[in-house]
Amino acid sequence: MTSSASFDTLESLQADIAELIARLPTLKNRQFIQQALATIVRLADSEIERLDWKILSAALADMERGFELFYDYRHVRKVTIFGSARLAADTPEYQMALEFAHAVSQLGFMVMTGGGGGIMQAGHEGAGRENSFGLNIQLPFEQEANPFIEGDPKLIHFKYFFTRKLFLLKESDAVALFPGGFGTQDEAFECMTLSQTGKFGPVPLVLIDRPGGDYWRSWSEYIDKQLVQNGLVSPEDPSLYTVTDNLDVACDAITRFYQVYHSSRYVGDQLVIRLKTDISDALVEQLNADFSDIIVKGRIEKSQALPQEAQDETVGLPRLILYFNQRDLGRLYQMIATINQMGTPSAEDAAHPERK
């Protein structure tokens, strides 16, 4: 390391960080570690308040706990369940959430909730402790951890809502929303907004009501009447979600999403869609014909992993690549549905949609 006198300037601090990183064991994410430390140093040289440092420190601690918890479960798909903390165990909504959580856990998925009561408790009761994650937060009311997750090492406590919500979505491969209050509505609209803008997913979003209930059906009618018909969202945006009061439909919406589709990412300006199994040339031609409106240039083409994906764990999966316009996400969801409907998964993939 350089002498302590060199810490008098920002430049020397950054040089010391580079030297420190160089002395660490070989790390595949060395570049990002250096960037993170350099950001801290730049902030240290800035005029920010003590409260800002407290927020930064606590948020990093929240993220540290989340990253460490979920790393060992990165190859298992998870369903996040949102809904009211106030619904008692004798309500139809609670029973529906319990049965849904049990059903998806039997399909091999794990369940994540906010760790509290009501619908969150139903999720853990249905899935069982071994298949559950609780992402709790301290509130003056409603938010004690429920007995089905209390004391489990997969229960973590967050200081901030934003870090908690980060993990509830970042680690999620599907979202199930049950009836709830302002918090549930916030979660529903944030899921829609992040999906619509390409900041989350693609993942299946399922809005589940009690049998014969109209909570989400009325919500969907509002979306159509006030947003779609007035041109405030695209006509295809309702393709982002499924509204149902039937457990079989809800579970099928999730498992079907991962029949052939695996995941996606951007490499430069290209959207790379990873598939569990190869699809026919005829289906690729159909996709080009049916979804040319979302392609900025070129065509949808088959591909193997791109050079930039050499370190990716999915390097062996077949891919589709396209220059997606990054705007019509509802249409992209429709294209994924076509791939899943027209593609032919292997028997192994069809039996295990939960595997990443």
UniProtKB/TrEMBL annotation:
GO cellular component, one term: cytosol
Protein name: LOG family protein
TM ranges: none
Entries under PANTHER family matching the protein: CYTOKININ RIBOSIDE 5'-MONOPHOSPHATE PHOSPHORIBOHYDROLASE
Top-level taxon in the UniProt lineage: Bacteria
Organism of origin: Nostoc edaphicum CCNP1411
Coiled coil: none
Pfam families, A to Z: Lysine_decarbox (PF03641)
